[in-house]
Write a structure and sequence with these properties.
Distance between the termini: 40 Å
Shape: globular
Helix content: under 10%
Number of helices: 1
Radius of gyration: 14 Å
Number of strands: 11
Order of helices and strands: EEEEEEEEEHEE
Strand content: over 45%
Low-confidence stretches: none
Mean pLDDT: 93
């Protein structure tokens, strides 16, 4: 079983920055694709940024140029650097992982809840105007 634990959320003014972290534990072999998803109040969960098993990355259009996803394999930690935050970035941010071999970042980005094997409990990001 893979456990995922997000941290780094908080309240920030528009234009500010936050860095989210997702620590993975319980699965020490193989590789897996990972992604960040968010859910705003009253809206469906959406993929924000992802890393495929091939190392490729993908971003939803609204965060391109502002968010950067990265992974430190030695620390088993996934990051999301969020700059130039906007009020519409507000939401619960979730980390997710999938063990399917060959899953690309684009596939992760478009995955539904049941399309990913493991989910963290989320960290809240609030951006005030």
């Amino acid at each position: 079983q893979l456990q995922l634990a997000e941290s780094g959320g908080g309240s920030v003014q528009a234009g500010g920055s936050l860095r989210l972290s997702c620590a993975a534990s319980g699965y020490s072999y193989g590789t897996y694709s990972m992604g960040w998803f968010r859910q705003a109040p009253g809206k469906e969960r959406e993929g924000v940024a992802a890393i495929g098993t091939d190392g490729s990355t993908a971003y939803t259009d609204s965060v391109k140029g502002r968010f950067t996803i990265s992974k430190d394999s030695a620390k088993n930690t996934l990051y999301l650097q969020m700059n130039s935050l906007k009020p519409e970035d507000t939401g619960m941010y979730y980390c997710a992982a999938d063990l399917e071999l060959g899953m690309t970042a684009t596939q992760v980005l478009g995955a539904t809840y049941y399309g990913m094997d493991y989910w963290g409990k989320g960290t809240l990001v609030f951006v005030s105007s």
